[in-house]
Structure to design on (811 residues):
């Protein structure tokens, strides 16, 4: 743990730490004050720039945008989890003809930028008349990309369960299906949870790319509001509001994850199993040692 | 199929060259900034830890497009001059990616056995020395696989710059539309380009993963 | 503990939201600024024709079964294709779209508008995402290979929008060398700047919308925004103390209505509608209500039927 990186400070160390602490707080406060002053002197708090938020039509648009964001994220999350589960299962299959294609599919979709993936659906739809809406282009793009990443997370999570567990399970005569379902998955899931939640946060944020293919999500509405000259191009106010909404939504997800994790840990204590990784650890460590 | 690439070679060449430049410069800068932030997050000074945590939680929960928009349109409104769209783009990518790098480095630090830093402290090293001489070099091996994931994400994230006056690979479809070329073939070539760039990173990740698995 | 804080915070936010939820329809009177000019006024009144049929048009048959029109427009061009904070649309292009709808026998108030970025127009028309497109869409041979055009219903010219005090580009396009120029990604005007090398490649900025360019202009990040004068005048009219159109057009842009390719029957029908509007004074009326407010007079152009 990080606390072993430094000694418990002595009397002089305590003073030094307290002084440095104060300096940092002052520096941060100074930076914040400078920024607010800068915003103020450049007229970013003028009523004109914020007036749009009072319109009921604008509030409605923002709400619709938010709902569109949530709709796309929600559906894509479910589909991505399914996609991830199926392809993770295929990747740990004993049959080479299942394993190898699944690996290629997962690696391919992990390598294509999401924007390009959405463009694919958008333009293919137009060329071949698939009748897709921008909404489905966004959802499919998000599903393929995040599903592939989730497949990787699931696979790595299962691989990370100590070897003895698997060997013992096989030794008592369980079939592969049973080993994975009854022994490996239950142990892997709490270790994977932080990575899964991080990926959900990524998915939620990536809905914002939808504006490029004309999906009217939150950022699309925000860009439109910011682009009104009559209100002095209120980009800063609208972006601040939008950022707060996104940060709030994503934090909510993290809180949910922490809650779920706490529950599984409490349950675990009773059964005496080792505690799972904490949320803050190994977030981006999709592969390797989750 | 091939003519789409050869006829518009100038676009593809310039586009991917800009992608590579954006990627490399942002990767180096976010590695530096991310490591500094990670040091903040494990430091003995609570306010520094707060700065690190606040930064990471804010940036990781903000869409990259918004970070770009703040730097391109927001900063201009406050009369904060960024030298050029290129550097504004590098700035946006760095600010965003360093939050992820920070988390990778920090969890890497946590993988180093406590005995190592205890021993280092016993011989009288300071926090800074413990971190830079003992912990980070050992954490490096655990950091490489997740760090390559972060950099793969960064490489792909450069496409977002297409909406912000940077004619990198993600912007090729816009110009190809103007030239009346087939969009799907264009997208396939762009995908191939990204595969060529990403595969080495994936191999690096695999290789590092195997090494840690053996250790 | 931390969670309880967050829940409390959310509660407060929700309360604040409900408190402000009863938003206004119009900005408060005397609120200062020029907000009044932002709201779209009453649209032009069109008689909806009845019993219209366009024989031999697959697109029209599709519209007929649907019962209303889906029209591609722009939303961020004041006085041309604009959506105000109330969600109402107005401008010259919008009125043209409404006029065509009425004369095709569909209530113009029931048009479903779709905002299509410049770079996606051909694909949106070709894919049937929209029935037609009215939004500063220049007729070019290259585009004619992908879509077909009725019109032109307006002739514009590429010009420069500059900060009011800046006189360094009054000579027009020849003065652009060394200046930072901005336009919409993938648009004809920026392609012309590149082709004629009016300024250095490193001085060219391209953003998704003209609004973003104009914002950069006001913030002195670019020196000029270039596109058709019709669009630029719309902005200049909105902020006349800050912005100015140079007034030396260096191209001829014929705005057409983008239609599905090879639907000659529908194209002829729309051309007939445009022709009628030019002779019966409708064209002039909607021009004066929109772009005409900028002070420059306009006349309907001759149609180019094919």
């Amino acid at each position: 743990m990080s606390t072993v990186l430094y000694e418990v400070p002595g009397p002089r160390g305590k003073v030094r730490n307290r002084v440095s602490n104060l300096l940092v707080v002052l520096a941060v406060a100074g930076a914040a004050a400078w920024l607010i002053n800068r915003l103020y002197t450049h007229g970013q708090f003028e009523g004109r720039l914020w007036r749009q938020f009072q319109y009921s039509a604008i509030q409605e648009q923002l709400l619709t945008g938010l709902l569109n964001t949530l709709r796309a994220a929600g559906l894509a999350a479910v589909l991505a989890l399914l996609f991830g589960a199926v392809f993770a299962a295929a990747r740990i299959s004993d049959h080479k003809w299942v394993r190898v294609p699944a690996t290629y599919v997962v690696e391919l979709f992990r390598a294509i930028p999401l924007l390009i993936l959405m463009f694919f659906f958008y333009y293919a739809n137009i060329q071949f008349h698939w009748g897709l809406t921008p909404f489905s282009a966004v959802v499919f793009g998000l599903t393929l990309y995040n599903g592939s990443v989730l497949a990787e997370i699931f696979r790595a999570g299962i691989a990370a369960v100590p070897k003895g567990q698997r060997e013992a399970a096989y030794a008592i005569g369980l079939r592969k299906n049973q080993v994975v379902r009854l022994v490996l998955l239950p142990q892997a899931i709490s270790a994977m949870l932080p990575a899964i939640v991080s990926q959900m946060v990524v998915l939620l944020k990536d809905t914002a790319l939808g504006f490029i293919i004309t999906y009217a999500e939150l950022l699309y509405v925000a860009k439109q509001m910011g682009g009104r000259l009559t209100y002095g191009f209120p980009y800063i106010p609208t972006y601040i509001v939008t950022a707060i909404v996104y940060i709030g939504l994503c934090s909510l997800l993290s809180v949910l994850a922490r809650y779920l994790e706490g529950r599984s840990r409490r349950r675990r204590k009773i059964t005496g199993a080792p505690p799972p990784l904490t949320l803050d650890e190994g977030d981006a460590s999709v592969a390797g040692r989750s | 199929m091939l003519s789409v690439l050869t006829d518009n070679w100038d676009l593809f060449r310039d586009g991917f060259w800009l992608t590579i430049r954006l990627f490399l410069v942002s990767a180096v800068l976010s590695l530096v900034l991310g490591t500094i932030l990670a040091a903040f997050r494990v430091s003995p000074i609570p306010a520094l830890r707060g700065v690190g945590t606040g930064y990471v939680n804010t940036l990781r929960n903000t869409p990259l497009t918004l970070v770009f928009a703040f730097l391109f349109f927001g900063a201009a409104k406050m009369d904060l001059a960024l030298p050029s769209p290129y550097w504004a783009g590098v700035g946006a990518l760095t600010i965003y990616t360093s939050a992820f790098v920070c988390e990778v480095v920090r969890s890497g630090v946590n993988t180093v056995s406590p005995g190592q830093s205890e021993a280092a402290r016993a011989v009288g090293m300071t926090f800074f020395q413990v971190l830079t001489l003992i912990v980070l070099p050992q954490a490096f091996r655990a950091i490489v696989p997740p760090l390559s994931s972060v950099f793969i994400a960064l490489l792909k994230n450069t496409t977002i710059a297409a909406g912000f006056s940077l004619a990198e690979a993600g912007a090729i479809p816009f110009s190809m539309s103007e030239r009346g070329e087939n969009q799907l073939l264009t997208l396939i070539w762009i995908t191939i380009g990204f595969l060529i760039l990403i595969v080495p990173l994936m191999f690096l990740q695999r290789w590092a993963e195997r090494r840690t698995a053996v250790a | 503990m931390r969670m309880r804080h967050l829940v409390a915070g959310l509660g407060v936010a929700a309360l604040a939201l409900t408190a402000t939820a009863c938003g206004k329809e119009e900005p408060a009177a005397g609120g200062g600024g020029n907000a009044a000019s932002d709201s779209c006024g009453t649209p032009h009144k069109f008689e909806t024709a009845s019993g219209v049929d366009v024989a031999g048009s697959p697109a029209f048959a599709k519209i007929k079964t649907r019962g209303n029109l889906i029209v591609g427009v722009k939303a961020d061009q004041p006085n041309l294709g604009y959506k105000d904070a109330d969600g109402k649309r107005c401008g010259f292009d919008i009125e043209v779209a409404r006029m065509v709808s009425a004369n095709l026998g569909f209530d113009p108030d029931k048009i479903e508008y779709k905002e299509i970025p410049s770079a996606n127009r051909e694909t949106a028309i070709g894919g049937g995402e929209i029935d037609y497109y009215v939004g500063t869409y220049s007729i070019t041979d290259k585009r004619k290979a992908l879509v077909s055009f009725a019109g032109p219903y307006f002739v514009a010219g590429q010009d420069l929008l500059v900060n009011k005090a800046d006189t360094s580009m009054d000579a027009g396009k020849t003065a652009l060398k060394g200046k930072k120029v901005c336009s919409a990604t993938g648009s004809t005007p920026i392609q012309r700047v590149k082709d004629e090398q009016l300024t250095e490649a490193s001085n060219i900025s391209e953003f998704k919308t003209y609004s973003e360019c104009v914002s950069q202009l006001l913030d002195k990040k670019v020196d000029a925004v270039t596109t058709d004068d019709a669009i630029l005048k719309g902005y200049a009219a909105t902020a006349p103390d800050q912005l100015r159109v140079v007034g030396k057009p260096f191209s001829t842009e014929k705005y057409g209505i983008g239609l599905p390719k090879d639907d000659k029957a529908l194209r002829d029908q729309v051309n007939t509608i445009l022709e009628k509007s030019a002779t019966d004074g409708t064209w002039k009326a909607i021009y004066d209500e929109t772009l005409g407010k900028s002070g420059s007079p306009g006349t309907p152009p001759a149609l180019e039927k094919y």
About this structure: Residues 270-290 of chain A have pLDDT under 50 and may be disordered. The domain at 51-271 of chain A is CATH 1.10.3720.10 (MetI-like fold).
